Structures are given as C-alpha cells and as structure tokens.
Amino acid sequence: MKMRKLGADGPELSAIGLGCMRMTPLTAQQGWTGKDEGIATIHAALDAGVSLLNTGDFYTMGANEMLVGEALRGRRDKAFLSVKFGAMRAPDGQFLGFDARPKAIRNFCAYSLQRLGVDEIDLYQPSRIDPAVPVEDTIGAVADLIKEGKVRYLGVSEYNADQLRRAHAVHPVTALEIEYSLASRFIEPEILPVARELGIGIVPYSVVTQGLLTGALPAELPADDIRRIFPRFQGENLHRNIAAVEALRAIAERKGATPAQIAIAWVLAQGEDLIPLVGMSNRSRLPENLGALDVALSPEDLAELDHAFAPGTFAGSRYPEGLESHVAS
Questions:
Q1: Residues sharing a CB contact under 8 Å with residue 33, sequence separation 6 or more, in sequence order
Q2: Is the whole-model pTM more than 0.90?
Q3: Domain 3-212+266-286, CATH among 3.40.50.300, 3.40.50.720, 1.20.200.10, 3.20.20.100
Q4: Known catalytic membership, residue 59
C-alpha cells in the first residue's frame, strides 16, 4: 500500500481511504448489500493496507458507527478512524440541520465512543458549519476533547478558506474533508492554496461524483434512486454530464483502465497532500478502486483531463437548494 502523510502534523496513512457511509444506507434502493458484507468490506480493505476509515455519527442515525465498531473488534490498531459530527436527523432520516454547540459536541463524542467501542477517535470533525455558533467555539470544544485524550487530531469538513484560517488559529487543523473531483474543482482557486499554506491535508470525498464518473449511469435514474434529489442528476443536467464523461471513457480505454480509476488517479495526482476517500459497500469493488494507485498519468494525460474537465464542464450544483448554503463554495 502506498502511503501519504495526513497534513503537516498527522500520521502516515494509506493513500486511499475507505468511505463507510453506503454500508448502512437510509433506503434499500441505495444498493445496500447487507451488514455482513459491509463488515467483510472493511476487513478486506484493512487486509489490503487501507488504514483510513471514514464514518459519521449521523450516517443512518448511528448504525454506521456500530457497524464500523463491530468490524474493528480485534483490529483497532489497523485503522485510523475519521468521524464527522453535527448533522441532525429525525427518526425517518429527515435532515434537521446542524448543531455545533460545545455541549452538543461533547454529547456527540460520548455516543460515538460508545457506538464505535473505542477509547479515542483519531480524527474528529464538524461535518458542516453551524451558522448559529462561532467557528472558534466549535473548534475550541474539539480542542478540549483532544486535551482530555478522547480525540487525537482535529479535522473539519466543507470549510471555506476564511473558516479554515479561523479554525486553525484556535487549534491546528490536521485535515479538511471536502468534495473534490474532475466534476467539482471549486477548491482550486482559494481553499486548496490556503490549506496548503497552513499545512492542512485534504481528504477529498465523492471523487467519482456518486457514480457519475464511472461512465456507467443510465440516461435516466430509477424513480427511487436517491441521487435524483441532486441537481447534477436531474433532466438535461444529467444528459449533459453523461455526455461529458465520454471524454473520460476515451482516456481510460487508452490507458487500459476504467473511468473510475482515471478519476481517482487524477485526484491522487493533484498532490501528495491529498488522501481521497472512496466509498464502498461491497468488497468486490476493492480491487478496481485500489487499482487506481497503479495508474500513471503523464503530464500530457493530466493536461488532456484538465482541458476536457475544466471548471464549469458539469451542469447542476452539488447539493439541492436549501443545502447549498451549508457547504463550501
């Protein structure tokens, strides 16, 4: 397994991390393969040398943490646990907003430690900004948990450049989890340079844009496909975006790789300070995804991809109206 350092003050981790969210989806239509397969996928990833595991306390209202915790029994020393907190859900899964008050953070952490069955969380991060709570208060609460030995490193998710600076001024930020892919390059002008200036590692998620960059999507998604709520997967936006992916397919065929491998390899090629997350719920996906580590993109390949997938190529915003205000832009 190729290794990379997580930020200026973090540990050496696998160059690709495992996103665990899809192992406990809210609906069966999200392709759930079952709890046992989720655990088997984590075990296979750990056996292959993947050390970064990513979850959130709001992924299926704690069920994801419990699955990860069960998978790590007897294997805790092989995993670096990244946990997001702050999003709130109703019993039916409905999104209710974010809570990043210091008291709430201590409560979230206590429950996460119990569900995961661990004494310490390796990387703990607010999932989004809470507009009602100053960044400094949120970060200060995590810093207190670090002092108490409940958390090892501070991370943040979907923070913009200004918020990164404010957070880092309170306590060193080890990693920024944020969407970054050939279809989402908004971090390049300002957020990425600031993160690098501050020595903050980047953990990109959605590197194949919820399957769009695999080149395998149909012209119209099934009525029960949860991706239909996202503007990129609606109507003419979806048709335009599927057409754009054809350029990726052509490069993949020339390189003897799959479109997904090229998409992951492109993210990896953007710098040694990036450790992309790849979400999986089935161990059969592991060889293809880890195979991206062996895809060598030449300067000419990178220039071609940069041109074919210039910012603005893909139609539709990242999140539905109402959620866009909660993510970096």
A1: 281, 282
A2: yes
A3: 3.20.20.100
A4: yes
